[in-house]
């Protein structure tokens, strides 16, 4: 069975979510039939770089676009002609995808030169997609530079990378560059909902939210996790299933213990902590999430305008919870964050990771209570 993230790879620009500027610019180029010879697509994983590279490949070779000017004006590939279908299924010989992370040897550079030097076999344009391009060797970049200086008319070179700053300027300056953004939690939830609907996957709202929030802006991570959870075959995916799979507690539990801490309620804090340990959650992960929660609370207390910046990372009702906690956050709580950071570095080497964490809570809550 096709993995969800493959099955739901956008086949049109309109389906590429959260990358408005990239989409707008490329659609316009497609309408006017003015693609560049080389592109550099950069940004976090799972945000649409490979997807966009394939869309460019289709725009360059779509037979319907070639024949039908009215259709061309849409700025989209048709997805029904042979070229589009071949590219969608990954069978197109003239679309060469190389993963630079696993092909770093001298043979590959020779290969690369050969591929660029030979005209396309079937298509109008030969598309050369180099993934993780920052991993290329110096020799490979030099070979590429030659191509970029005198690109054969039939070649479109697309570099994709998560680390644009590692691409030599001699290369990047000869490409058209697009920056892909981390995607907002809301957009991820929206797409997951659509997928769940089509696949008839039953999943609770809280479970969806945790999947989306833990994906850190990556559609692929979210879709893969949904896939994994679905393959367990339970009737309905519940929050607990996601929590167990991730070894990570959901927002509500996190918010609950943060509340106890901010109210200096040591009893309930320790109780909740022990509860979390009993359920087998990864305590280091939990501590990291708790630190992140409190850090956001602190930031909101001292700079309420950061609200805007957090909107992409959090759902609205979660953000409201944080804002409420920011109101009871006191200067002394900064120390709590510090102590937790300390505990975090200790617990990774401790045989009983809960102990540094408990000590941290006792220490900092006792102190805060005094002031
Ligand atoms: N902008 C996006 N809009 C909708 N789905 C996306 C987007 N970006 C990624 N995806 C989903 O994630 C999968 C992987 O995306 P991909 O383009 O390969 O990411 P990467 O940026 O790592 O190359 C796609 O098949 C698709 O299901
Ligand atoms: Mg990719
Ligand atoms: Zn087509």
From TrEMBL:
Domain of life the protein comes from: Bacteria
Pfam families found in the cross-reference section: DNA_pol3_delta2, DNA_pol3_gamma3, DNAX_ATPase_lid
GO process terms (BP): DNA-templated DNA replication
Domain AAA+ ATPase, residue spans: 35-184
EC number: 2.7.7.7
GO molecular function, one term: DNA-directed DNA polymerase activity
Catalytic activity: DNA(n) + a 2'-deoxyribonucleoside 5'-triphosphate = DNA(n+1) + diphosphate
Keywords linked to the UniProt accession: ATP-binding, DNA replication, DNA-directed DNA polymerase, Metal-binding, Nucleotide-binding, Nucleotidyltransferase, Transferase, Zinc
Tagged with keyword Zinc: yes
Cellular component, GO, one term: DNA polymerase III complex
General function of this protein: DNA polymerase III is a complex, multichain enzyme responsible for most of the replicative synthesis in bacteria. This DNA polymerase also exhibits 3' to 5' exonuclease activity.
Subunit: DNA polymerase III contains a core (composed of alpha, epsilon and theta chains) that associates with a tau subunit. This core dimerizes to form the POLIII' complex. PolIII' associates with the gamma complex (composed of gamma, delta, delta', psi and chi chains) and with the beta chain to form the complete DNA polymerase III complex.
Family according to the record: Belongs to the DnaX/STICHEL family.
NCBIfam families documented for this protein: dnaX_nterm, PRK05563.1
Protein name: DNA polymerase III subunit gamma/tau
Lineage: Bacteria, Candidatus Joergenseniibacteriota
Gene name for this UniProt entry: dnaX
